[in-house]
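Progress report, Aim 2. The chain analyzed during this reporting quarter is listed below.
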Amino acid sequence: MSPWIIIVILGACAIAYALIMPKKDKSQEHGNQLVQEMESTLEHYMTEMENDNDALIQRVAEMKGEAIAADQRMQLQLEEMQQRLEQLEQSKAVEPNSVSHLSTVHSTNGLQAQGLVESVRVEAAESIAELENQPHDQATSTVGESIKVRYAELFNLYAEGKSIDAITKQTGIQRGEVQLILQLAEREES
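Predicted structure tokens for the chain:
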């Protein structure tokens, strides 16, 4: 090969190398710019995280203070309740003495009251004995009838296909109570 061809080939290689090198520099500059943007974004993110952590720590401290204050209020209420209980116990301990004193003063009234209490006890015992003598099925049907009679409007609305919410609005009975009444009626029927 002749020397001038070698020079031309070397020149062409130098030109090609020169064209390739600036592209690498541009890509490196672009890469450096991306790295700087990422670093600034991460720094911004870290700053926000620190601010959020500080706010969270402050809120936890506030909540702890509120919990301590609530605990102190509860302790004071507990102490007041204990004092009231002690006062009630003391007044109850004093009350039987005053009742016995009053009963000796008003002995005739006391005898009448005792007679009335005894008659009520006798009547209650008789009614209990009658209920015990009734068959179980008859007692439950009486209770079931009384539920249906007592809440006739509720059962009429339910029979019409009204929802529980509609029944509560019309009757003024709370939703849970309506559900309980319906469940009790179903148990009575089965």
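The helical segments are 3-105, 107-133, 136-150, 152-159, 164-171, 175-189. Residues 145 and 185 are 9 Å apart (CA to CA). These observations will guide the mutagenesis work planned for the next reporting period.
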